[in-house]
Amino acid sequence: MIGRPRFTAAAAALLTSALLLSGCGAAGEASAAPDTLRVALLPDENASDVIKNNEPLKKHLEEELEMDVELVVTTDYSSMIEAMSRGRLELAYFGPLSYVVAQEKADIEPFAALQEVDGEDPTYQSVFIANADAGIESLADVAGRTVAWGDQASTSSHLIPKAMLAEEADLRVDQGDYEEQHVGSHDAVALAVQNGNADAGGMSLPIYERMVEEGVIDSEKVVKVQESEPYANYPWTMQSNLPEDVKGKLRAAFLELEDPAVLEPFDATGFEEVTDADYDAVRDLAPLLDINLEDYQ
User: Fold this and answer.
1) 239 forms bridges with which residues in the sheet?
2) What SUPFAM superfamilies has UniProt attached to this entry (predicted)?
């Protein structure tokens, strides 16, 4: 495994105490090929929509691996991390931050990430949004306002936009500069901002753009304040102790995928190989939030 710094206490402090529970990792000798490949998908949007959007991928994996595939959407990020750490899942689609946390608890490896533009690195962005009537035109205007985040272990709807406020506007929730609320998912963040239940929020830029395109939210009511820098895209990960032939088939099933029917729900042109080192930027970002780990124990 590529050497890199350990996950910091400040980063771990972003999570609920559920993430700090001890778990049994999947380390050890290679396991037998599973009868059914259990594939966990991020609960970052409505669960039924997540399952529906990934049905073409399920069919593709069943054909390529010649085994049954079960799609799983957990109740939140922490339960997904815990299930992976206890070997109850073989494959998982993590956000960058939830991957970093899971990798500390389980013997897993990232192997593929979405390539959204052909020929470019597999990256994505977060976006800081605001209710149009809130008068927020810059990050500095968030002072004294209410901000909605998604899950505490979400990269693009918590870690990145929260770090943007801290780095670029010197606004920190632990200093009382603004109030925050966690609403669970990206779509819930957008709707909270649109409905006026929060003045602003942070979410994935691709999800924001899709919600606007589908008419779920109105871009004149939920406006973009600032986009983040690009970060390594959500990684597909697998248990390291899967049989080598299964791991090889999994890599090929993603990295050689060209079927538009499978790729269309992802708005992607394909998948590119990623490694653990690609997520060091997330590890480096977390300490900027300067949150005390003891607050979460």
Assistant:
1) 108
2) Periplasmic binding protein-like II (SSF53850)
Q: What is the mean pLDDT of each run of 10 residues along the chain (297 residues)?
A: 34 37 46 91 84 93 96 91 94 91 92 79 90 98 98 89 94 95 95 98 94 96 96 94 96 94 85 93 74 33
Give CA–CA dist 173/201, Å, rounded. Answer: 13
Residue that finishes a domain, picked among 204, 227, 250: 227
Partnered with residue 223 across adjacent β-strands are 130
Cα angle 273, 274, 276; round to 5: 150
- Residues 6 or more apart whose CB falls under 8 angstroms from that of 269 comprise 115, 116, 117, 118, 263
Q: For the chain, count helices (H), then strands (E).
A: 11, 13
Local structure of residue 72 (DSSP, 8 states): E
β-strand pairing of 91-93 with 235-239:
antiparallel
Co-location of 107 and 249 in the same domain = yes
Question: Range of 207's domain?
Answer: 126-227
Does 116 share its domain with 19?
Answer: yes
**How far apart, in whole angstroms, are the C-alpha atoms of residue 56 and residue 36?**
17
CATH code at position 203: 3.40.190.10
Pick left, alpha or beta for residue 181 (phi over 0 → left; psi -120 to 50 → alpha; otherwise beta). beta
Which pair of tokens denotes residue 222? 């939920």
